[in-house]
Amino acid sequence: MRGQVSPILSAYGNVDRDLIIPVYQRNYDWRIKQCEQLLVDLEHLILTDQPKHFFGALVGKPDDSFTWVVIDGQQRLTTVSLLMLAIVHTIRDSGEGDSGLARRIQRNYLLSGDSTDNPRFRLKPVKHDAEAYRRLYGPEDEFIETSNLTANYRYFMKRIPELEVTPQQLWGGIERLEVMILDLEAHDDAQRIFESLNSTGLALSEADKVRNFVLMGLPVHEQTVVYEDYWNRIEQNVEYDTTAFLRWYLTAKTTRIPTISAVYDEFKRYARDQGAVGRELLAPIREYADIYRQIRRADTASDAVNHRLQRYNILRAEVVLPFLLPTFSDWRHGRISEHDVVESLRIIESYLFRRWACSIPTHALNKIFATAYRELTRLKGDSDSFVDVLAYLLRRRTRTGTFPADAAFTEALRTRDFYKTKREWRNYLFECLENLNSRDSRDIVKRLEDGELSVEHIMPQTLTDSWRRDLGAEADVIHENWLHRLGNLTVTGYNSKYSNVSFKKKQSIENGFLDSPYRLNRELKTAEVWDLDAMEARTDRLVNDALKYWRYPETSFEPPAPQLPVETLGGDTNFTNRVIVAFEFNEVQGTVASWTEFAQVLMKELLRIDRERVLAFAQKFVEFHVGSEPNMGRKLTKIDNGFYWNLQTSTREKVLTLRRLFEYLDLDAEDVLVTLRPTESENASERQEEEAKSTYALLIKFKERLETRRGASEIDEEAQQILAEFTGEVMKFGIEDPMGVLGSTPMEFAGDPERVTAASEQELLALISGVVALDKVFPGSLWRQVANGNLVDWLGRLAEKS
Length: 802
Prior knowledge:
By secondary structure, the chain is of the alpha+beta class. The protein has 37 helices and 17 strands. The chain has six domains: 2-197, no CATH class; 203-297, no CATH class; 300-404, no CATH class; 411-549, no CATH class; 560-693, Up-down Bundle (Replication modulator SeqA, C-terminal DNA-binding domain), CATH 1.20.1380; 695-802, no CATH class. A hairpin with a 7-residue loop joins strand 5 (111-112) and strand 6 (120-121). The radius of gyration is 32 Å and the shape is globular.
């Protein structure tokens, strides 16, 4: 085997060389995600004027002088071929640029020979891919839309005109892509090498990849400094669970929650957005790693904070870290007080425990705490309490995000099975009920884990005759209802072989209730009998203690403008009679005019993630059509080429279909956040569907989201995204001369209330367009019209007239 690093184009060899994918290889399966990464890398390579970019390895074996059999690397070669073809077609379709370049790319790297009637393709894909690839060179109506090759080619065709570089520059980037080309020799066993390349081994962790990404581009002396002073300290602080820590760090910084396997890709995206390298990139990560260590070890400068952290750590609730990390950073830098941190931990502890006690599923917590810090800092004014805003944010959650109030919490405490449950939560329960807020505490959790104590039933799991006498005629009913309830459970140090003995015996044995030092067993020392009345009385006392310890937070905070409720797509809410305003999923977020628009945009994102499996799902249900354009009799909406969906259905049916699809794709519908209007009303979603057909629906749909920023002092990141989206929609209306329509500057027109009140649709549209145009010259102009409420008022008037 011979190998060297060379430009990827050298793999295509001379003009007559064919690249053969052998039949034992799988079909082409790179998705849009990988294509997107290639474009990002190429664009970065060009804009930063880097000499080259390494693109992995290719392994092949010459079959003869004109044929190279690809053993490994078909995904890269096929993707680059698709990109080259898209560049050729983009140049030709636009009629701009170097037509000679398009011919050279096609002749030297895509086709063999000059025949256009029966072209020979340089790349010979495997199996069904070959036909899909061949058709990309012909009429568009003959494309195989179910193929990944077609989807990725279409993605390149769409994205190339949107890049900051020209097709000619993009080609220059491809010329600077380098790969390690390994040429097998006659004596090499191609099949054994293929098996070896694709066998399971000890792969690099996501943290390993991040470390290499950060360090490899630095000078050698700088690598050593950055490794020792930054990376090594990060790993020590997080006890080498670095991938998991980086996942929570990225969530805290971006409000997106990457999967463990996507941490490296998300980190690269984060690093590009930061525009930082080396120590500058790792400095904030090192700070958060130090905070992470303090949280995990309950080792801060405050005894009060440490006391709260010790309780919090029993729960192992890492899901809260995206909120805690920046919160503790604020405390470290003097932006909030020790009291703020203590009370925040108390509120979070209450929120988590009340939800657990009430058996509320936990999956919504990921998104809640991923976005909580961003929401809090957006809403908090200079005079507002950090804790008050946090309490407001958690109290306003509904359904899967709800903060159970006292009534629901009390009912759960009285009736829930607290024995057959997760050990750490049960241990935490008795730790807190024993010690409450006392500093004179007993380490219940440690003694339970060490086996010095055990959680025991006072009334035993098996009733003896003496127990039946104590319980009376309703013994079996009482036993069935009360066995695992809080009032009948405690911690003891006596031998479990005494579990079924009489109550009097349990009191008097060694380490029995009479000798118990624990507050949990207060009633058990003095009770003459353990019957229904005794269990109810003890329950009353424990419930009262629980309500004091896990308090429902009070808050006086009111946001400057009404806030919109946010729910997840998961759960059992069918959203009937609800009006959707916006949604967020992964990196996709947007304002929508209807549930239909939401369904279309979300389905397009799912196609981007896993087109093959989405199409497989669609073929199982009659509401979809996969393939060529359906007949006119079916009322189907085109979602993408070769994919159609019947969206003339109820909101409930759309939501249920999406939930089924998420389950099929092994995705969590809880990751989809849906922003709604605050109130429900009969047939609201149907009315919204009609309103979405109005002339200015593309603009009016922003009204509710912009209303939440009325009175805001500073623009936040989410508001910037909303305005960028809004600006794009305004541009579609093409008002080229707003001042000509208004007869004055936009600001002069806006300053005259009578003219605004009497404005026509065209004048309102010109006013909005004029402010958007002004914002490009004087940044902040559009935001000021949002903050003072003018833009929302203009949109309201436009809605009335349309």
